[in-house]
Amino acid sequence: VPVNFETVQVNSSLTDGDLEAAIIAIKRNGVAIKGNIETKHDDPEFKSRNVELRTRLDLYANILHCVTIPTVPTRHKDIDIVLIRENTEGEYSGLEHETLPGIVESIK
Description:
Blueprint: H1 16-29, H2 49-56, E1 61-67, E2 80-86, E3 96-100, E4 103-106
Antiparallel strand pairs: 1-2, 3-4
């Protein structure tokens, strides 16, 4: 079965219009493979594109399946674990502000 991929570039310097186009593409396709997106920490008014995507697409949880690879030497063998991190509260929700220059407070 042939699979067609639509590539959408998302990074911290996207305009709001570019981000909106990416969100429309994700909703249209019903699926996306997304890596981490750099966040600009030098502008306190800047909203993280990661947080924006999680909020706009109502992504409640981040699920990571971690396994060891048999041919790669590791300290621990036969690891097979699933991590589930809730995205809508705490540090991952993006509810934070700078109380004083260089001091950031996260709202839980």
